[in-house]
Amino acid sequence: MTSNLFHPHGTASDKTLQRCVRLSRQGRGLVPVAGLSPLPEPGPHEVLICIEATSLNYRDLLIAWGRYGGVEEGRIPLSDCAGVVLALGSQVSEWQKGDRVMPGFFKDWLSGPFKPAYGPSASGGESEGVLARTVVMPASALVRVPDYLDGQSAATLPCAAVTAWQALFERARPLKAGDTLLVQGTGGVALFALQLGLAQGARVIVLSSSDAKLERARAMGAWGLINYRDVAEWDTEVLRLTEGEGVQHILELGGAQTFQRSLNCLAYGGQIAQIGLLSGSFARPDLGRLQRLNATLEGIAVGSVQHLQHLVRYLETHRIEPVIDRVFHLDEVEQAYAYLASGQHFGKVVIRV
Ligand SMILES: NC(=O)c1ccc[n+]([C@@H]2O[C@H](COP(=O)([O-])OP(=O)(O)OC[C@H]3O[C@@H](n4cnc5c(N)ncnc54)[C@H](OP(=O)(O)O)[C@@H]3O)[C@@H](O)[C@H]2O)c1
Fold first, then answer.
1. What is the C-alpha separation between 293 and 260, in angstroms, rounded?
2. Which end of the chain has fewer surrounding CB within 10 Å, N or C?
3. In the chain, what are the domain boundaries?
């Protein structure tokens, strides 16, 4: 059904079709190619959105590399976007044409704890993604874009920012002023955590493979800077910086090769939010240490629509501007993927539609 809609130039002369990007099989992976899709029409409880911008997450690379199950050839990729309401389903009363909105990462996870049934509703994975001129979304999955943010900035929020938000503020041990927070790397999740941590009055230690990126993190307000390429035993350095106390909060993005070090430099009563598996998923951590520390380990799956609403309120109060590294055009989608995969980015990579 979808393959006959592939179009190399992505121009839609037929008014019932629109430009989009689809994933096309290449070897064991999937590559983004220009395509066409039928112009969607909103059902009774849905909203048609004209997409202004989308943003890339590491998940989109995992999907392209064939390391994320359940994604078929022909799928429209990406989960994150922001745009303007174009049309409303007959039963929608909470939105109006012209409203600026963004969808939650899981269309079906509105609030409360995560349930496995919500998983397939994540856009760009098992369900259709947002890299198209327009998309249809359930009205209940949408959140208002704050006035002070443009569409490109808003498009960075649904996955990376909500993940950092949930990890820091919505689980067992919310981040407090005076806490020390450790973030790994300088990608999307990490820099949102840095900004949220600073706004909350925390001291933030940033790990990065690049001194130049660490300097940029310092300019943003980071308190501790460690190059994890040069300082393999960065856990010891974190303990030195904190005079042996360790840190109260860690956003664990590295996975297999970083988890034990995170545990080594966690403070008593601290929390590790398990978020990323950049260096693999199987670790053999010292469970005795977790126990002795009276520590909390929280697994994070992005967040709900309500988490996105809470995040937006906090961002608005603190006037936090997402850090966008580069903006690509829809015609440059392959370059955008390649740029994220190169690891050169500091913050978010955006695709303007
Ligand atoms: N569980 C969830 O809900 C959830 C949600 C979002 C993301 N994630 C996961 O979180 C991770 C980050 O996602 P993202 O979208 O923020 O990625 P991203 O923007 O591509 O950032 C990745 C950054 O991580 C750093 N990094 C790589 N290997 C590292 C290591 N061994 N130790 C410390 N830092 C390392 C690098 O920073 P430097 O260049 O500074 O070294 C790299 O730029 C990914 O594993 C992703 O799958 C999970």
1. 13
2. N
3. 3-158+323-352, 172-299
Q: Can you give the pTM of this predicted structure?
A: 0.96
For a pocket test of ligand 1, which of 54, 55, 56, 57 has the largest count of ligand atoms closer than 8 A to its C-beta?
57
pLDDT (tens digit per residue) in 42-95: 999 999 999 999 999 999 999 999 988 878 899 999 999 999 999 999 999 999
CATH class of the domain defined by 3-158+323-352: alpha beta
Tell me the pLDDT tens digit for each residue of 296-342: 999 999 999 999 999 999 999 999 999 999 999 999 999 999 999 99
Q: Ligand 1 center to residue 185 CA distance, Å? A: 6
Q: Are 346 and 326 in contact (CB under 8 A)?
A: no
Ligand 1 surroundings by CB, under 6 angstroms: 57-59, 159-160, 163, 184-190, 207-210, 213, 228, 253-254, 257-258, 275-279, 300-302, 340, 343
Q: Which of 60, 38, 146, 64 is nearest to 102 (CA)?
A: 146
Query: Ligand 1, closest atom to CA 56?
Result: 15
Domain 172-299: which CATH class? Answer: alpha beta
Compute, in angstroms, the gap from residue 317 CA to the centroid of ligand 1: 27
DSSP state of 146: P
